[in-house]
Amino acid sequence: MGGGGGANEWNEDALLKKPFQKEKQSKVAHRQVATDEWDREEARNQRFHFLALDAYARHKKMVNDYILYYGGKKEDFKRSGENDKTDLDIIRENHRFLWREEDEADMNWEKRLSKKYYDKLFKEYCIADLTKYKENKFGFRWRHEKEVVSGKGQFSCGSKHCDEKEGLKSWEVNFGYVEHGEKKNALVKLRLCPECSYKLNFHHR
Q1: Which region is the signal sequence (predicted)?
Q2: Phi, psi (5° rounding) for residue 36?
Q3: Is there a single domain that holds both residue 162 and residue 103?
Q4: pLDDT tens digits, 28-84
């Protein structure tokens, strides 16, 4: 009976088997499939670590990776500072002794920066550079806040290199100057000691 039962079970399995059905096999992932999955996981990990870096660290990594894959030197990535300008450079380039309406017609950010500096100056008295007085060359500029607070140019001599406080005299000077290729004039006021007043009027004695 045991043998007959086995035959019946085999016949039943044979009847239930679909035509052309393959024998059951344990599924083993193809090597390429496993490789692709590993690559995707590695890419996800790299992206996670890359995004976790700060901006500067990301920049350094990208530069190093570029050099690793394409060759070159880090020096090739260093930007030239040859044309860099400070705020002071910008102010000097766009300086106006007196700002007029026409000067404000076409304002870019460089001019706005220079105008902002100009607006902070005090334009009642000037500071004078008299070092080339014998050549009849004078330099004048407006006072800044620190000089106003200390009294420089009003309660002490307005000459750049003099701090005399006695015998000060007020002068009005027609200051002629060239600015951005254009000749201009401005009436300015000075407070000078006797010695510096002599220098100012050296050619008008």
Answers
A1: none
A2: -60, -40
A3: no
A4: 556 777 777 787 888 888 888 888 888 888 888 888 888 888 877 776 667 667 777
